[in-house]
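Dear colleague,

Following up on yesterday's call, I've attached the two folding results inline so they're easy to grep. Please treat them as preliminary; we haven't cross-checked anything against experimental data yet. The first protein's sequence and structure tokens come first.
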Amino acid sequence: MHAVIRRYEGVTDQAEAGRRVNEEFLPLVRQVNGFVAYYWVDAGGGVMVSTGVFQDRAGAEESTERAGDFVRERLAELLPHPPQVTAGEVVAHS
């Protein structure tokens, strides 16, 4: 399995970002081959973090492409800074 974590800072409206991710992005990311799970977390202080888990690296990479497109098209005014992206193979889980 592979995971992708994206940390967004300076989020201007956490509630609206969460609504759009839940209603509009989740259906898109669920279509990625190898999708396992996705989480969108309000970490407070204008920070939001997404975590996506996929069966393989190709799915994780496709999710990153879809996320980038979605942010540009639907969240740019709410997420003014590019995310810090961390991705890699899951080596332990339960």
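Below is the second protein, in the same order (sequence, then structure):
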Amino acid sequence: MSDDVTVLEDEIEAYADGTVARVRVLSVPTSDRFEDGIKYAYHYGEAGADDPIIRFDNHHGVHELHLGGETFEIDYPGLAEIFRAWRAALPEEKRDDW
């Protein structure tokens, strides 16, 4: 990782049912691709699966929602709102971990 990227949050939880949840937020240089200087991913899915159950990210500079194998471009309401939407989509028994 380059010196101008800072890990703000990086947490992962592996569950007994084979699912994994991960929150990763990086501070990156502000650019046309990352106008807010933030790169993020909120992921929940089967460990090792090709497609997530649900993931919000902006890895390519575009804010996206991934549901299974489908990807949807979304408006960016802010990091806190994205986190709340991701957490609300988790199974109820896993929300307390986040």
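For the second protein, one point worth flagging: The chain has two helices and six strands.

Best wishes,
A.L.
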